[in-house]
Amino acid sequence: MLPTVPRIAVVVVCEDDEVTREQLCRNLTEDRFTALPAADAEEALRLCRYDAPDAMLLDLALPDASGLDVLREIRAAEGPAPLFDASLPIMVVSGHGADGERVRGLTEGADDYLVKPFFYPELLARLRLLLAGRDGSRRGPARIGELKLDLATRTVEVAGQPVVLANKEFELLRVLAREPQRVFTKDELLREIWGYSAGSRTRTLDSHASRLRRKLDSGGRFVVNCWGVGYRLVEGGMQ
């Protein structure tokens, strides 16, 4: 039987240069990290949203957006069930090395800033320091009455009992849990979860909401259909 070596951490590697990206991922894998490659801002944000990474290496010159915008998006995450972990350790690895650019990156929320060309052992040492400074736990689970939603593990419990959700059902619950008392319109939910444009006619949302309601509680305590408007998530008994 081959030995199983535990991974140290999960790291998103957002770098548009294919050679640099592959070299970083290969070296990190050899050093017992799980490296998740991203060639652009959209993919980096998707990985941060769905894969619960422990850190990110972020280039600033990306083909679809500035790396600074990625920083801002992550640092602005808030609420009981945010899209991203706002405290995610992020090291900028960029060819832009002027003093003003480094200061701007740090001001926008980077935890460290390394200028290209870089010496990989130095990057590794800095990454280990960032992870060592982590508080040891990701954002805790959101609790709404008897409902517990853990974004890091993508698990759900009701009254201590696990509930198995499909991916889109979990995403619907995550969005509703951001503001449990607010009514999210159908257009909002379809746009954020499925990427549909406003005014789209589809039964997808209603079908998923119906299944989610049944899985969480057959009495419909948690997912409330606000007829003609959308859905909201409320604590048990609060209609």
CATH architecture annotation of the largest domain? 3-Layer(aba) Sandwich
What is the overall pLDDT average?
Answer: 87
In terms of DSSP E residues, the strand content is 15-25%
Q: How large, in whole angstroms, is the Cα Rg?
A: 20 Å
Compute the number of helices.
Answer: 8
Shape descriptor reads elongated
H and E order: EHEHEHEHEHEEEEHEHHEE
Question: Stretches where pLDDT falls below 50 for ≥5 residues?
Answer: 235-239
For the record, give the distance between the C-alpha atoms at the N and C termini, rounded to a whole number: 56 Å
CATH fold name of the largest domain: Rossmann fold
How many distinct domains? 2
User: Based on DSSP secondary structure assignment, what is the total number of beta strands?
Assistant: 12
Q: Please give the CATH class of the largest domain.
A: Alpha Beta
Helix-and-strand structural type: alpha/beta
What is the percent of helical residues? 25-40%
Largest sheet: 5 strands, parallel
Output the CATH homologous superfamily of the largest domain. Response regulator
What does this molecule look like?
The structure is a single chain. The chain is an alpha/beta fold and 239 residues long. The protein folds into two domains: 123 residues, Response regulator (Rossmann fold), CATH 3.40.50.2300; 92 residues, Arc Repressor Mutant, subunit A, CATH 1.10.10. 37% of the residues lie in helices and 20% in strands. Helix 4 links the parallel strand 4 and strand 5. The longest helix has 13 residues. It starts with 9 loop residues before the first strand and ends in a 6-residue tail after the last strand. The C terminus is likely disordered.
